[in-house]
Write the structure tokens for this entry.
Amino acid sequence: MRRSPRELDPNAAPQDGGGVGQWGFAEQADDDAAGVGGRGTGRAARPKGSVRPERAATPLVVWILAGLAAAAAVVSIVAAVWPATALNWVWPAGIGLFLGGAAWVIAALRGARKWPGVVASVLCVAGIVAPVSTSAVLRAELDAQAQALVHDEDNEAAGDSFDESVMASFLPELVEAAVPVGTGANVGELRVVVQKIELNADADVASADPSAPRAEGRYVTAVVEVGNRSGAAVSPGTDLTYDLIAADGTTVDGASCPAQLPENPVLATDLAAGETGSYTVCFDVPSALNTDTILKGSAVRVADALASETTAGFWSAG
């Protein structure tokens, strides 16, 4: 059996500048030092036999804050299961992230374990990312469906076969996922923003057009801003279509409104390239749809009437 120089001659001196490591005991020495400080630990040595001081107990307030943050994160994560309303539930995770950060800071200041705040904060980040991601995926799918609908309408205009029932079947989903009023959307080469939807516009219509007949149910108006980003002039009255669509897909065509409003896009002049115009669209809502519940669940659709590579925008009336 081969023996080390230390075993052969205990009094032998290490060679070539070696030390304990010359005989292979450096690792053991470091292990011993790690328990009491000293070499390899970056801190002063402690006497052997001394006890490592215990970390301070985690304060109750840290557990409470971390627990509330985790609960808020779970609410946002669960809400992501319903993409159409997921964005409405991002705020609990945002508040939870603040609470989780507070738990981490308090634990750090008191020398307690910080992992409750860290775990809660990570959950809150997931609670923010999950609803945003699912909502974005749904929006992309709905945009693709809307584009397919416009393709179908173009095919109909060209004389190709077109199934109205297929288009109508997608409308409830598109209405449910409608963006809030004031949000911009690209409709072909136009930037469209529905700035306001008035669900009880009988008085406004009567004031703007005293000769207008009474609505079948009621008048609804929408203020639409159109920005022309194309290289040519466009007509806001013929290049775009305006509809009010109920949650079940029932459609009210803006072109059927008998009132002649001063800002009616049909009466407006062409919109030059780079210009923006604001128009008021009128809808004569039939009696069957004339309830606040139905109208608040509806959406205004603005679509490109001519181009084939376009999408339609949907804005919630509620």
Q: What stands out?
A: Residues 73 and 275 are 44 Å apart (CA to CA). The longest strand covers residues 218-228.
